Amino acid sequence: MAEPVLAVDGISKYFGAVAASRNVSLDLRQGEIHALIGPNGAGKSTLVKQIAGELRPDAGSVRFCGRPVDNIDTVGRARLGMARTFQVSCLAMELSVLRNAMLAAAGAAGQVFRFLPAANSDTAITGPALECLRQVGLDQRARTRVADLSHGERRRLEIALALAMRPKAFLMDEPMAGMGPEGARTLTPLLSSLRAKAPILLVEHDMDAVFSLADRISVLVNGEIIATGSVDEIRANPEVQKSYLGDGE
Amino acid sequence: MNREQIVSFVISGLLFGAGLAGFVLDQPFILTLAAKAAIFAIAGVGLNLALGYGGLVSFGHAAFFGIGGYAAGILAWHTRNFEPLATWPIEISGTTSMPVIWLVAVFAAMFFALPMGALSLRTGGVYFIMITLAFAQMLYYFALTWPAYGGEDGLSFYLRNDFPGLTASDPWTFFLLCLAMLIGVMALCALLVRSRFGLALEMARQNPQRLASSGIRPFTVRLAAFIVSAMITALAGALYADLNRFVSPSMLSWSMSGEIMVFVILGGVARLAGPVAGACLFILLEEVLGGRFEFWQVLLGVVLILVVLFARGGLMGLAAGRRSAHG
Fold first, then answer.
1. Which residue of chain A has the CA closest to B204?
2. B255 contacts chain A (CB < 8 A)
3. Contact residues on chain A for B195, CB-CB shorter than 8 A
4. Which of A73, A87, A149, B114 is the most buried (most CB within 10 A)?
């Protein structure tokens, strides 16, 4: 079988005596959505940060597209094709939707040190930017300031920016955060279609969305992965039911 | 043309009009003031690139203003005294040609801004302000104590430097030269801000985390902006030395850094014509109030407080409204 796009191997991270990640291993294969679930404080976001290069693990390593990336920082990993979306929208509020997307496209295109030609008429970045906005349904809002967008629209823009980077893998940290069940339902088909472009490591709280989207699920509890498997396997797993799914249902 | 562009043209036109009035009425004094305003505006346009567009509050831009000034002063001094600048490995003489002086000024600033920026940009916020100040103060005390070029007395050169084909010693010609340079750097700045680089710089200010996760290093973008900003301010310094035919350590002092900051904040941060408006108002206040009251800078303080409190976006904010999200 082909090597996974992303492989996390035995990552541990301690904050003082608290273990945020304990010997975590997981992989992300071509064409799949791999959901990472777990109760609040389980260390899901901390894990995403370590994969994205924002936090350095105390032990273990991360391989991306067949190469170790432990000594590569966030910028370098993004250039390799890791596209991250943030739990709390991470956008330039005073810029238009289009300019936010253009910046992401410029990152993918490289050559940021173009000082003179106007970016607005640079089709090498406006083209991909508009295309990504269209895919998430924000093309009509391209000229709007991000500060004037609704919360749901900002969540969509986060995804559009990741798309504009022409990624090899998506790291999505709660893309549906704060959207409510109704909003989550509108995002589900979009996320489902994205796995054809690049595999998605999806951190999500909305169980309906996770069960309908995920090809595989890993359950993180107290910094430790207690189970990995298909949707049905995870649903049937007694340990998962006890420590996580049980309390809600 | 949008409102901002119209206001920018009007402000630049007013500056030209002031110079023209000086020429027509044969008042070299007014011409000198107008040239000074244009030069200060160039320095402000330079700082605005870092402070306004990049959000890098540099309190050390006097260093670059002074480097430009000393480049003009030292090169001219060597020529006038027939002393070569260097004799080994090849003999290099000074020059009185403005274009050459400007090049030297701009590249000297670049070489100083590179390490200064690289070290300062490792910090942020208040620490960035303090480190840039410290760098400028180092240069200030160096110039003060280095005897070769006048030390604390400064360096006078009795003739203004030359511009090929022009009589730069004529106040009207020199004013037009300064105004042309101002328009040139404003055009450069307008292009920069609209380019891919400008977009990245805007993002570095608004959301560096997003910039980094788009695969662009905020540090590199900021450093480039800081260096270009320094080069523009150095050009202003070279012109200022030529305006006064004198350069002294006061061009490097922290109060000079503060003044350049005042031009930008008074006129409007991250607005193309902001520093022009700010520098003109500053010169106007200095002349109108400074001639009457010993304590005019107290009134300048009052104006600055009013502008910061009630006209967010400075004079440009008052005249042209909020900044647009352009595009």
1. A92
2. no
3. 114-119
4. A149
Residues of B in contact with A93 (CB under 8 A): 206
Asked if A119 and B195 come within 8 Å (Cβ–Cβ), the reply is: yes
Q: What is the pLDDT, as a whole number, of residue B327?
A: 47
More confident residue, B323 or A184: A184
Q: What percent of chain B has pLDDT over 70?
A: 99
Tell me the C-alpha distance between B101 and B182, whole Å.
17
- Which of B210, B217, B229, B271 is best to mutate for the A interface (most A CBs within 10 A)? B210
CB of B207 within 8 Å of a chain A CB? The answer is yes
The residues, ordered by sequence, that sit 6+ positions from A106 with a Cβ below 8 Å of its Cβ are: A112, A119, A125, B196, B199, B200, B214, B216
Widest pairwise Cα distance in chain A:
62
Q: How many residues belong to chain A?
A: 249
pLDDT score at A45: 93
Q: Cα B182–B186–B191 angle (5° rounding)?
A: 150
Supply the ipTM of this predicted assembly: 0.92
The pLDDT value given to residue B209? 95
